[in-house]
Amino acid sequence: MPKDLAANPILSRWVTVHPDGGVDVRVGKVELGQGILTALAQIAADELGVELERVRMRPANTASGPDEGLTSGSMSIMHSGGAVRVACAQVRARFTAEAARRWDVGAARVTVRRGLLECGERVTSYGALAGAVDLDVPADPLAPFTHGGKAVAVGTSAPRLDLPDKIAGRPRFIHDLRLPGQWFGRVVRPPSPGAALRHVDEGRLAGMDVLLVRDGSFVGVTGADEAEVSRAAEVLRAAASWDEHDTLPDEDGLRDFLRSGPHETLPVLTPPLDGSGPDGSEAPDGSEVPAGGAARPVARGLRASYGRPFLAHASMAPSCGVARWNDDGTLSVWSHSQGINGLRNAIGLALGLDADRIEVEHAEGAGCYGHNAADDAAFDAVLLARAVPGRPVHVQWSRRDELAWSPFGSAMSVEVAAEVSESGAVLTWDYDVWSQGHTSRPGFAGVPGLLAAGHLERPWPQPPAVDPPPAAGSGTVRNAVPIYDFPRRRVTGHRLLRAPLRSSALRALGAFMNVFAIESFMDELALSAGADPLEYRLAHLGDARGRRVLTAAADASGWGAPMPEGSGRGIGFARYKDKGAYCAVVAEVEAEQEIRVPRLTIAVDVGLVVNPDGVRNQIEGGATQAASWTLKERVRFDRRRVTSDDWESYPILRFSETPEISVILVEAPGLPSVGAGEAAQGPTAAAIANALAAALDIRLRDLPLTPDSIIATINATP
Amino acid sequence: MTRAFELTVNGEPVRVEADPDATLLHVLRNVLDLKGTRFGCGLGLCGACFVRMDGNVVPSCDVPMWSAAGRTVVTVEGLSAGGGLHRVQRALLDEQAAQCGFCISGIIMSAATLLDADPAPGERAVIEALDRNLCRCGVQRRVVRAIVNAGAAEETP
């Protein structure tokens, strides 16, 4: 039985059939703009044997729906899809059994199609049987896995269920939520990460129709009118004085900062000490030594170091949360969190409240690319609402706080060295990666992990971010193991045990940097061997699906055809998390005054495709965002404050800078579906860097790739 | 201190009580209950709150009510007479040109205003018209394709 169903076995948690034939499906995964609820509805429709239009996906809720943990890591289609498939197949079997009982026929003679159950001339429907079939029963682990019928909705590009509202401009986002008696709230955050509130000149709020809420260094206002509350927050900002300290690293010395320690060492691949044998026993892909590989003598070695800065989520909407303390002592929360159950538990922990007394319902926010400030905003609402029991309080962050106080994706540094044979074949691979941790989600390391919890009069500690365990895909060392068949590899991660800038999960976590570094270095090795970068990769790659994807991207991109002066083509490739989607990207770069990426050609293999256009949209979006990270983005700070706090100081890719993208879906219908949301991140960065090297014969190893860094690299070359 | 302001919103004359410094965006969302216009940055830099005012696309987060008085404002809800969808919206749906959809209202306002001036714009004109709109999910190319299609559909009825 799929693990999410085993953990939530009661079928009525997942499915409710109404007398009108409509079907409510509840999942623990949430819509983040990625279209997951549409894909899961397609699976549900097919397994139930109803039209897609009859399926209504309900918002995830801690009280009424299944707990499926986080919506992250490109795992939803695999985990929730598997659970929905089996749960719906079992619901269908129970309805079939009821129809068969009524007609006194064998269940195998009952067919289900378009919401109707039929046996010869006899016809009934889901709606007609709804009252007679009990779904308050656990899923049967021995029941058939799936009805095995022909896919109707699965495999089609069903339009997204949520887009009609969003494109018509109807209220749909948590920002639009208005509950009876609702007030608004704003928090005035400290000016810098190490700051403590010294004094508030409360008199300056006199005459304003708001309530001041203060608890230690947490300070905010709440009131009935949003405009008044916003104005009061600005007055409060000016009325607050803070003790500040220099706590941040040198933004131009991140490599030294990351490598200076103390660290937790994360050994990923450790070859035997005697230097004789391969490390194949520990390679997750089970690769073996190429014939004669170990025997070839080392001809030369290459070494390089790569880096990336801190990156911001930079969602289009500021984070938002709503909370209400109810008269019976319970707490209701609305949040665009990726993990409503984790948020519930963290709020309970922070306030010493039994989690059973807290209900969190998901409400859609803007695009979410990891652990952003959604949970923090929800907790802000909880703290402000505590001052006005019975009243919902709706808290919206400012753009400035969204860019400066959401957790960041950590800066990272990589050192990689290889020894190659006379022909250029890799004989040894030696890889180190340094980073702050990649998760500080609610509940991590035994603390609430909610921003304001660290600012209270009795503050919770704010330990440095940790890394997800290997079973959840790791963090710093995600995708640190190259997919290629190298005879001898050593891969070690180093998680920094300090986090002066709060870091957490950002789309692909460490995989973005590791793939950028590995695939850049593969290019450097290819060029030093005088080999074509595509051929060089294929010569080291036994994995058949990987070879197919690489070749598909190259073929579609016109790989090998000549490019004009100042232009170049580059390739990047990875299998996300070593077991997810395969993705190869070919980038074209024009480097003149600016660095432009006119075109990306991408091939992807996600196993069985549930919604082809959904996969394309995720790959296009991921690649566009990765191009933005690669070309433009860098969190800026001085030794005290984060200074990149608007769209001018933290620019992202604009329409005029966005590459044209073509996506080739390399079909693998017999294989399990895996997620697409993060597969393109690393390969895109590497492809762009490699294309830039092809265009200018200059290798940039630190992101972002900017005209300034080209000039600096030229000046630094003797 | 609030004051009464009169303006035209989506073809209807409206009279609202508001602080003169309150933004047009606040009044649209909280007083007139038109939530299709979104708050993205409050600094006029992202385009999520774009509306049409006297024919020009402006960030409504950056328009104080004292300067909106007497103006004619069109929001995403009022683009199409009769409450149907504007052809830009239909084209966006056809292309599934959105992910989270938070930026899309502002994009629709920029695109619809472009089509008023240039009924069948080419790709370059569309990109230029949308360059003040930010999108973080990465649907830019789909949006451009949709808007070009919306124009082409008008040309060949």
Automatic annotation (TrEMBL), chain B:
Residues 3-79 form the 2Fe-2S ferredoxin-type domain. Gene3D superfamilies: 3.10.20.30, [2Fe-2S]-binding domain. The keyword Iron applies. InterPro entries: 2Fe-2S-bd, 2Fe-2S-bd_dom_sf, 2Fe-2S_ferredoxin-like_sf, 2Fe-2S_ferredoxin-type, 2Fe2S_fd_BS, Beta-grasp_dom_sf, Diverse_Oxidoreductases. It holds the Pfam family Fer2. PROSITE patterns: 2FE2S_FER_1, 2FE2S_FER_2. It comes from the Bacteria. Keywords: 2Fe-2S, Iron, Iron-sulfur, Metal-binding, Oxidoreductase. This is (2Fe-2S)-binding protein. It comes from Sphaerisporangium corydalis.
